[in-house]
Write the structure tokens for this entry.
Amino acid sequence: MTEEKTQPNNEAVAEELKGVPEELLEQNGTGEELARLREELAAAKQDVLYARAETQNVRRRLEKDIADTRAYAATGFARDILSVSDNLSRALSAIPADLREDEKLKNLVAGIEATGREIDKVFAAHGISRIAAVGLPLDPNQHQAMIEIPSADAEPGTVVQELQAGYMIKDRLLRPAMVAVAKKPD
């Protein structure tokens, strides 16, 4: 009964060894050559694992780059449209209170205000938000100090005036707020 088990195994081994060079068969697959082949196989397996890991890393980086590109694709356009928003705000600020009540200009003022609200709505829809500035400490990551103003009322380093509004697009700076910062009076 033992011989029957050994016999099919020998035939299976002989089948597996078809095509193996004679010099390897003469060494009977033992010794240094077999150890070397096992080391090469282990090294090849390790290389395959490293290659798979690198492929996954590259895929993740590409997916992140694609997501960032989609999220921030409008950055250039948004920067350009900020000047339009600034000019619209300046136009509204330039209208004196007595002219706002004039019947001839009332519809014009209402139209300009509606356009300003619509720009703000579009900004919000695309993740563009205004940076808070006045009354806050100077944040060099969001504010650009243009001038220092002596002030006894405000703590030195506090933003006391906003010269130009700053904006963020999602979590990135689109344009810093240009501000005036308080300093100790002389």
About this structure: DSSP finds six helices and six strands in the chain. Residues 123 and 129 are 7 Å apart (CA to CA).
